[in-house]
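Why should sequence recovery work at all? Because a backbone constrains its sequence more than one might expect. Tight turns favour small or flexible residues, buried strands favour hydrophobic ones, and helices have their own preferences. The token representation captures these environments compactly. In the example below, the structure is given first.
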């Protein structure tokens, strides 16, 4: 995928919902910037919001607090902050986005709740399980991630091995329905997932919004906006992109 596209202009009516915590922070402003660079407008969605998902053209689930383990049939095993109202809100957004066939991009926590929504589970603490990598936060792209070439992410990224940041302490354990693993780190923890049918769905365990100076990470947002625009055009023509 080429990154030499002409300067973007806002797509009329193209609105992306960004789900996040009650207080909007730097990551969400960077996500808005990344989407704006590809020509999309945004709507911020706080926990408890009853936004009409039919007004959206795509959905980004941002990072943040841990998904409560009750969502995948477990009790908390670590001391962590949870936001059950946000879990409820993201669950509803995912359900309605799936019904409408909206593109969905999950970032860190967003990838995790996407996996749980599809019936998967999480490892609540990856720190003691790391062998080849040290467990400490990395904002710079110093974590090696290996990408499956025969995948959407593989088409987006310029090489089969990329650098990514790492801020998470949880990871996908059991994979959810109709998802495939498309990237892993050197300890074989899942770093990216994609849908296996229809709807454009991708979850990345790292934070590409902090890496917008890198063309590959920028193109994740561009690919997502392209999918949202394609769906918008179908809907304007009276088509139905929702899954049966």
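From this structural description, the recovered sequence reads:
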């Amino acid at each position: 995928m080429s990154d030499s596209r002409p300067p973007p202009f806002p797509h009329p009516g193209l609105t992306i919902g960004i789900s996040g915590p009650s207080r909007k922070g730097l990551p969400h402003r960077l996500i808005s910037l990344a989407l704006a660079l590809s020509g999309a407008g945004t709507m911020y969605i706080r926990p408890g919001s009853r936004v009409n998902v039919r007004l959206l053209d795509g959905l980004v689930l941002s990072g943040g607090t841990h998904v409560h383990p009750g969502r995948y049939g477990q009790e908390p095993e670590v001391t962590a902050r949870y936001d059950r109202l946000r879990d409820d809100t993201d669950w509803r957004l995912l359900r309605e986005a799936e019904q409408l066939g909206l593109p969905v991009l999950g970032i860190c926590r967003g990838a995790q709740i996407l996996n749980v929504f599809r019936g998967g589970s999480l490892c609540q603490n990856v720190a003691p399980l790391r062998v080849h990598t040290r467990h400490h936060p990395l904002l710079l792209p110093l974590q090696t991630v290996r990408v499956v070439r025969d995948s959407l992410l593989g088409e987006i990224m310029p090489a089969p091995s990329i650098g990514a940041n790492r801020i998470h302490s949880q990871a996908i354990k059991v994979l959810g329905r109709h998802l495939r693993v498309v990237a892993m780190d050197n300890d074989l923890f899942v770093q990216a997932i994609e849908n296996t049918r229809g709807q454009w769905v991708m979850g990345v365990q790292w934070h590409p919004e902090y890496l917008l100076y890198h063309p590959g990470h920028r193109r994740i947002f561009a690919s997502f906006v392209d999918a949202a625009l394609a769906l918008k055009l179908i809907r304007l023509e009276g088509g139905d992109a929702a899954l049966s």
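A few observations help interpret the result. The chain is about 25% helix and 25% strand.
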